[in-house]
UniProtKB/TrEMBL annotation:
Signal peptide: none
Protein's name in the database: Phosphoribosyltransferase domain-containing protein
InterPro entries with a match to the protein in the record: ComF/GntX_DNA_util-trans (IPR051910), PRTase-like (IPR029057), PRTase_dom (IPR000836)
Similarity comment: Belongs to the ComF/GntX family.
Domain of life: Bacteria
Length: 209
């Protein structure tokens, strides 16, 4: 069991059960969204809504290198969700090389590998850029920073771009401009992004059914 209510008493230790990795109270803190959006002929599948609690959870996982938390992000999903994901070639948006070396692991890849889902990582960033601290105009620079690794091989099976947080969509758009894909899956989407794309919701989409 992982209970973030006890993190002050146990700053780096969590109790794990074999089948349960997050307590019921903590699970309630995830704001379930489970909606799909059709934007420029690309489906965006959003699992949760991003908020302050999600921000702290991701910070603890990624920047405090609490790797045991990799289990919690997809722990509420049913077997059919993972079966559906295995039908795709999953393509991940990467951390910068500097961040990867600091952390000692690639957070996004660890989240999916915990459930036997392999994520290909064909992108790299030419420089470190922390988008949360930038203006909207500055964030657009990601289009020039994100590149494809030369000679990187991936299966031809239907591809889906995956990422942890969708804020403005600039990183996703940059990735899609390099490798066109028809579907995107994100763990969290920022409320402002959700609000600005209400008209794009596909009410009868079957991805989360």
């Amino acid at each position: 069991m992982i209970c973030l209510q006890k993190e002050r008493q146990l700053p780096s230790r969590f109790l794990l059960e074999e089948d349960v990795c997050v307590c019921r109270e903590c699970q309630k803190k995830f704001i379930l969204h489970k909606k799909s959006y059709l934007i420029d002929q690309v489906y965006y599948h959003v699992l949760f809504e991003y908020d302050e609690w999600a921000q702290r959870l991701l910070f603890q996982y990624k920047d405090q290198r609490d790797i045991v938390l990799r289990r919690v992000f997809l722990s509420s999903q049913e077997k059919r969700f993972f079966e559906k994901m295995k039908k795709y070639t999953l393509v991940g948006l990467c951390s910068s090389e500097k961040k990867r070396q600091e952390r000692g692991f690639e957070p996004l890849l660890e989240i999916f590998s915990e459930y036997a889902l392999f994520v290909f990582s064909p992108f790299y960033k030419q420089e470190e850029i922390k988008q949360s601290s930038l203006s909207k105009q500055e964030r657009a620079r990601i289009q020039k920073i994100l590149k494809i690794k030369e000679g990187y091989w991936m299966p031809k099976k239907k591809r889906m771009l995956v990422d942890d947080v969708l804020t403005t969509g600039n990183s996703v758009q940059a990735a899609l401009s390099l490798i066109p894909m028809k579907e995107v899956f994100v763990l969290f989407a920022h409320p402002l992004w959700i609000e600005s794309h209400q008209k794009d919701v596909k009410k009868h989409d079957s991805f989360f059914i």
